[in-house]
Amino acid sequence: MVPKSFKVIVVGGGPVGLTAAHALHHAGIDFVILESRISAVLDQGASLVLSSPSLRIMHQLGVLERLLKIGGELQHTQSMTRDGDQFVNSQAIFQVLKKNHGTAPVAFHRAQLIETLFESLPTAAKDRYLLNKKVDSIESDETGVRVTCTDGSTYDGSIVIGADGVHSKTRRIMREQALEEDPQCDWDAAVPFPALYKCMWCSFPRVGDCGQATDTQSQDMSTMFLAGRERGWIFLYERLPEPTTSRVDYTEGDRQAFAAKFADFPVTDKLKVKDVYATRLTDGMANLEEGILKHWSWGRIVLAGDACHKFTPNAGRGLNNGIQDVVALCNGLHEILETRTENDLPDLVILSKMFADYQQTRSAPVKSDGDQSLYLSRMHA
């Protein structure tokens, strides 16, 4: 039995943090989720695609049936040039995936996926999901950690999992503490992930058949289209003149001007970007950071998902790797906790080894998926 006095503080309540909530609850490990936003469900972002291994994990967590009611299984892929000339038109890849794994990848509207993951939490776990909790500081010693939020509230625990995304506050604090202890250590940069592409996305009422996936490729510009159960999504990519680590807040005017550049790009055989953009329900735009950290942990802090590895979305591997991170971490925690008592909690040496094993286990698949994402982005544009 896992000691009740061992507690995990998860910073970030997005899809990776919510997966951690489910996994920790099932493992019998106490936890709290600190989410900075005022609502668990905000209609931001576009689509998220869960691969077959991630869907298997969702089955183990008891939420797959609910997820399949809102997702659209991918069935058909097309690739074409900017002029509309097709060079791929196939169902084969998704048929092979379904034959080998029982299901092809499934596309979800991001807000619906998050809502389902949140609403399917047992009441006891949902009570541990706290909103409007912006992390201000993390203190740690030989016995535990204390997280202080900007509202003055504090939370004590045994470890911190930073699942707070590409602009992770947890990662910044971890870096500061590591350099404070050893100013000469070879740590990752404060802003570790450069961007070579910017991307605009929008969602709209679904057009075409559910499960359609299309990409349009051109010099320095490309598009992707997915059709889910109820909504469709497009992603418009443009290569930047040079890599940058600057964070840009694009305005509505920026988005409209950017969409106009892609207006006549084909989305399907019959539709162009301007046709679906006119019916958009939500949209957004950002630079697309890429990279993998050298250091995923320090002391009692460990990172997961986009906080420690960030991919372009072309291959749909970002969230799937975050889910795998959570599984590896929870399995590692359960292994070191299941035979311990309240008076025999794992010390920093044991935790550090478990964190190192976690990074070693995940490094090869993360690099493989990162390389594939990088390759697809550059092949498309």
From TrEMBL:
Signal peptide residue numbers: none
Higher taxonomy: Eukaryota, Fungi, Dikarya, Ascomycota, Pezizomycotina
Domain of life: Eukaryota
Key words of the record: FAD, Flavoprotein, Membrane, Oxidoreductase, Transmembrane, Transmembrane helix
Pfam family, one: FAD_binding_3
Keyword set includes Membrane: yes
Protein known as: FAD-binding domain-containing protein
InterPro entries: FAD-bd, FAD/NAD-bd_sf, FAD_mOase_fung
Keyword Flavoprotein: yes
Residue runs in coiled coils: none
Record GO terms (molecular function): FAD binding; monooxygenase activity
Chief localization: membrane
GO CC list: membrane
Sequence similarity: Belongs to the paxM FAD-dependent monooxygenase family.
Places the protein is found: Membrane
Residues covered by the FAD-binding domain: 7-343
